[in-house]
Design goal:
The complex is a heterotrimer of chains A (about 350), B (about 290) and C (about 260). Chain B contains 13 helices and two strands; from the N terminus they run H-E-E-H-H-H-H-H-H-H-H-H-H-H-H. With about 290 residues, chain B is an all-alpha fold. Chain C has about 260 residues and is mainly α. Chain C has twelve helices and no strands. Classes of the chains: A alpha+beta (about 350), B mainly alpha (about 290), C mainly alpha (about 260).
Amino acid sequence: MAHLDLIGVEKHYGSVRAVDRVSLAIDQGERLALLGPSGCGKTTTLNLVAGFLTPDAGEIRIAGKDVARLPPHKRNTGMVFQSYALFPHLPVAENVAFGLRMRRVERPAIARRVAEALALVRLDHLGARYPRQLSGGQQQRVALARALVIHPEILLLDEPLSNLDAKLRQEMRMELVGILKSVGITTIFVTHDQDEALSLADRVVVMNTGRIEQAGTPVEVYEEPATAFVAKFLGEPNVLAARVASVAGGEIACELEGGYRVVSERKAPVQAGDRVEVIVRAERVRLARAPSGLPNSFPARLEHVMYLGGDLRYLVRLGPHRLIAVEKNRGDGDVPVAGQALHVEWPARESLVAAAGPRP
Amino acid sequence: MRVSERLAPWLLAGPVVLFFVVFFAVPVALLFASSVERVDTATFQVIERFTLHNYRRFLFDRFYLGVLGTTLRISVLVTLAALVTGYPMASYLQRAKPRERAALMLLVVSPLLVSLVIRSYGWIIVLGPLGLINGVLSGLHLVSAPLKLMYTETAVVIGLTHVFYPFMVLAIYSSLQTIDPAVVQAAQNLGASPRMAFWRVTLPLSVPGIVAGSLIVFALSVSSFVTPALLGGPWVKVVAYLAWEQNLVVLDWPFAAAISVILLVLTAFVMYAYNRFVERGWFAGVFQ
Amino acid sequence: MTLRVVTYTLIVLLLVPLAATVATSFTTLSYVTFPPQGFTLRWYGEALHKQEFLDSFVLSLGIALVTAVLATGLGAPVAVALVRYRFPGRDLVNAFFMSPLILPTVVIGIALLQFYNQVRIGSTSASLVLGHVIVTTPYAIRLIASSLTGLDPAIERAARNLGAPPLRAFRLATLPLIRPGLMAGAVFAFITSFDNVTISIFLATPRMVTLPVRIYNLWDQPLSPWLLAICSLVILWTVVLIAVVERAVSVRGLFGAAGAR
């Protein structure tokens, strides 16, 4: 039995299906990320688990018990809100103690557990401060301590790092993963930031228009995208309009405008003559001075080089098409210059073929 | 900065400042000056230029102190009544859907647009011996003789609560609006029932609105004059009524001026508390 | 759901005195009693023949109109100075213009009455208007200032940058955008002036009595149905006014921006 089960959960707003037949099983101690663009239903799903919304259909089971009709205060989930939602009128220690007081925990135990929780997030010295006297990162940690101290069945994190600046976000990401691992708590977090999802979660669930597009390990969803949406949502995709020329022996050959012939080794439910999109991630596109024998290798012209310090981004023109290629800047000096003629190349397994569909 | 830029605000505001000095600041200053004069009430001649006679007369007289007591008592009751009825209204407004909220808000606020004379006459119809309440009570045979509601402190409290109600509702409503809804959700997520979340989170966070609304309503009640005169008649005298009486009936202007100054000091004190609380915040560490 | 019941009960209670006034004005009896008996418009006919009330209505209307124009005209430059410029004494000027709202209205009434008598201006329609202007201009300043505050000053600078001289830049780029604030200020001043009793009681003379004071002065007489007809007409007039004004400026916005008092 999974620790948290969502079975055919639906939530409608008028004719809009915010959450559409979502089924998920999350194991004890697993960290699961709900990833998707805004409006994909990930926050609604989180609110359904927390009990701020009631599903229109389906079951939500925590440790086997159906909680779909229970009010939020009887669910024993610990939530970290996007805005942190700290109680502005209570000092930090009282914020953390709130859930324990609601559970009528005895005073000495409250004091001990609050101290432990604050120590866990390295804020033991700030218990007497008020939330507004803390930095964003500190507030975030108070919110985490407040949610963990009640020993919830499930920890829910709503865009946990979105309110922090870029540098602090990196630091907090490391710290958060450390804390979650040491506590070993079942966690669901919602994010629209793929780096966050891929780096924090054991399993990533990519959602779109209320439905699950793909659920899998970070490596699976990134390397083996199940749908065109996933392929285009993760990483930095180049999307090329094409027509299938032939499907034979596990190889799909596509023809691009201008006579370019792109080969893919990936499976796709397409047949010769279909209009498709060929998707290639920018960091998988290589630039070469001469063809190196890869099946996808085309003469091209470098239009623009963008110097980003750690990375180099290239805008490459391939007849009527434009491709973006990203390389690490290793500092070995051999940076091509705009206007240069060169070859763009990628392996056959890096081109993903999908029926022409909407962009994420 | 160019000279014209520096002069601009004074060119804009200066003439209006001058106008307000002449027709507002000077009259109020003269009121202070007049309050320390003493006139012979038979001849209306000034007999003393600088004396605290008028203040002594007010502050050491049982009758006037009684009127002050009545005024304060009425104001406290009005404040409490407005608070107790205003909070549920404000909290409902906060939760209502936008259309319902807009409609209710209009209904709450629109009585303010009707002159308070007319609103007070409305209460005479409701509270009078042949009025609505007595009509209903005697119709149900609950009373044999009409209850005396008019010309009582109760009538004045009801009338004033009605007059100042919107200020309380708006003050509480605006403080409720500043509360992040996620904070209330957080309380529930941590195990607080909706009732508990209200007592532990929503109510404490709306204290600024409660205090602001109460101070405003109190200050307005203390200096109110028309409603007490109409609903309390000569039997329920308030400080503002005394000032009017001394000024227009007895024609003892210095005494009227002194009563005005006392009223002014009273409201100034409340407004000072208001500023301290709302703008600087007594809970400096707590509220943004 | 009990909260909903409480709320709607309170709304009814808020409207009871006004509803009772209107209901009773149709009574066929010649004295006021509840429930009213029968239905007649007779008292309205009688009310419309009370010449002194008609005169008072016209006087109140005129005073309110002039007050609205003056309050907006005086308030606008002050609002611009307070919002657009940082100058020494700005806080003081701001506090000074808000002080008529903090002072009890009775006190202002007495102060003005004594002042007019001391400088021997006496009570004229001009002195009534002056009193009303003092208590309404602060609202106009606040309402205009709040519409200015929400305005990006870069818009006027853009006009200047494109070659407009200062006054034209203000007229072309800023004025159209603060028109709602000016409208709101004028409307608020008009209503506040039209309803005002407390200042008017002190400044009225036997020959110059505004409508609310005229109604107030009957306090010591038994309530008569024709007076309720007059009150009902004023309520009707207010409702029409709200309906007209609500399209241009939200009534709630008026009170929101005008602040507590």
